[in-house]
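hi! just following up on the protien thing from before. the input was this:
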Amino acid sequence: MKDQWNIPETDRDESAALAQQTGVSEVAAGLLIQRGFSSPEAVSQFLEPSLGSLSPPFILKDMDRAVSRIVKGILEKETILVFGDYDVDGVTGTLVLLDFLKHCGADVSHYIPHRVREGYSFKPGHVKSLLVPRRTKLLITVDCGSDSNEAMALAAEHGVDVVITDHHSVPDHPPHAVAIVNPKRHDCTSGLEHLAGVGVAFYLVMALRKTLREKGFWSTLPEPNLKAACDLVALGTIADIVPLIRENRILTRMGMDIMNRNPRPGIKALMDISRMNKDSITAEDVAFRIAPRLNAAGRMDHADRALALLSANREKDARELSRSLEELNARRQSVEQQMVDEAEDYLTRTPGAAEKPAIILHRQGWHLGVLGIVAAKLAKKYHKPVILITFDGDTGKGSGRSVPGIDLYEALSACAGILKGFGGHAMAGGLEIKQEKLYAFHRAFNDHVEDITAQKPLSPRLDIHSRICFDDIRPGLLDELEKFQPFGNLNPEPLFIASDVNVVSDLAVGEKHRRLVLSSPGGETDAHVMAMHFHTARMADYPGSFRHLVFRIQWNRWNNARSPQIIIEDFL
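and the predicted 3d structure came back as:
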């Protein structure tokens, strides 16, 4: 499906005024205004984020109750269990909290469930299999637990206090717990709904450190430097595709600095094995190279492998663990491609299947750990919500991904009476369903999506941020654009458009990529720009010129040198 181009009109006078006030270029000033930063103070905070600008942790509802109960557990040496999710967000959040509690000398252990055998979140069976044998007094969840009503009630019956930390949607009747620290609570006014699970865990650690400081706890123990954990916060935040704004931007920016300057052994091993350019690691590198390898552990085996890698202190151990994750990732890619092919084959052979408001496919034996990635690929291609369900007997477990404009959690909530269980957020979710309910789910889910799209039809859109001449692609502008990083959800990498672009030279690179030299007569000089176009399946050879060209602008770093280049995204 061809993208619709959205090109905003910019107020040149406003851009020029902000550029004069802040010292940035007019191009950068226009981009800042689009993102809502129109004063010198706001621009400074955006371009130079600092930990001092973080919102205080106690604005989160129940944070005081959570801290009070955990401090008691630390001081009285109670048995504490940290129960985390199996994705990168949950693994990193578990490690942030686990490291802090161990530093405090707490009697703490952790548990991450097996994705396929146990499924998502804390369940009633975990009370007897985990809490009772370990004589647990305090359970702390990370990135899960907000909908575990039955399990939390059973834990209370066994004398276990529970602190839930999470960022998933909270039901109208939340579970029983000492504290539920979740910015998506209906009664939480913190304004921190954008935090990932690891972000909530980090905020809990911030609050614990402050309270322990007030109690004089650090007089006999070194106070931990929480900035050192920001690399883990960055990993989980980027991997979970939450908005990279405000607190998320600050924490991720600090974490990316750590990864670039002094990465921990586990991250360095992943950088090596994925052949990353270690001169400048970006959020894109984390999202498409590091995170998939960490997620492969939970998808294909057990997430404890990812946690072991991230907590490894010796480079030798980290290298060995990274190799095992690389093997799991290769297996994941193979299984994923097979499932994509099967889904595409069905959609091609079945008239009308791809034209419905949503795509819902099911099959016996599909790998549960890979459903979400395949659903994401199909959602991106067809630009509509996708639910994939794998059946084992008469019970199916599914994973879904959505597109902007359709809140997946709301859509699943509309089908709550049909489903055995569900959870998630706007863009991703999971469900459990009985075989006999499948037809009713198809109809109810598609009806809900159709009601929404009838009012506002969905169509893929390419948001272009600025018109530009090749003359403007100078080192100063590229340095400014780097300060806009990290790029991600709600802070996209700027897209530019230039017109009347000529192809000076064109060279194939491998089977799918092309390297070009381009020029445009629209500026004061006939500036030449190096360009790359990846995955050029649309055409074997380029025309001699483009009427319009859409691209990103980046530094090309190689062998301690750098040069400007553009990355082609679309053209006419």
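Residues 315-349 form the longest helix (35 residues).
The chain has 18 helices and 18 strands.
cheers
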